[in-house]
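To whoever is on call:

I kicked off a structure prediction for a single chain this morning and the downstream step that reads the tokens threw a length-mismatch warning. I double-checked the sequence; it's 195 residues and nothing unusual in it as far as I can see. Pasting both halves so you can look.
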Amino acid sequence: MRLHVIIMCKAPIPGAVKTRLIGRYSPHEAACLHSKMATAVIQRALRLFDAVFIAADDPGHSFFSGFNAPTLRQGEGDLGSRMNRLMLSAFDDGAEAVMFLGTDSPHMKERRLLEAAGLLHEYEVVLGPVEDGGYDLIALVSPQPVFSNISWSTERVTEETVDNIRGLNLSYAMLDKGFDIDHEEDLERAGWGGA
């Protein structure tokens, strides 16, 4: 199965990333932390998968030139619109499955990614839920409108995505619940304290 892994990633611009950590960290320190987290996510994906793409908010930013992976433009619209557009493009480009990752789970174990990829042989959608109500990965074996009408950045993201999946009569699998690094206590829990 030709799997395209697409990592949604912001450029590490002070004041624009990891803003919930600002206060404990300066905007510059938070941007450096984001850079380290994103690098860990990208490098892990490159170790595990053959077709990895970085979907950037600013593809021309120098941060993205440091990776041996094509950089795509996220484009305009809410997160769902951007992911839908990238998904359609990947399937048009010959992908047989697409997996989206964010950069808030640098502590994710490799086995979680491999488990998700393996489940795509049995299910049409695989979700990796996290404790705040979102997900750290979603993977699909066909282009489906699962990202519509989602209340992004709320605790209802997974619930509403599953509603869409069920409404489309797609089979799906849920991984064990993980967590994102959003707050200072998450850094400690993930082993990223003092990063």
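Update from on-call: the warning came from a stale cache, not from the record. Cleared it. Sanity check on the structure: Helices lie at 27-48, 79-92, 110-119, 157-167, 184-190.
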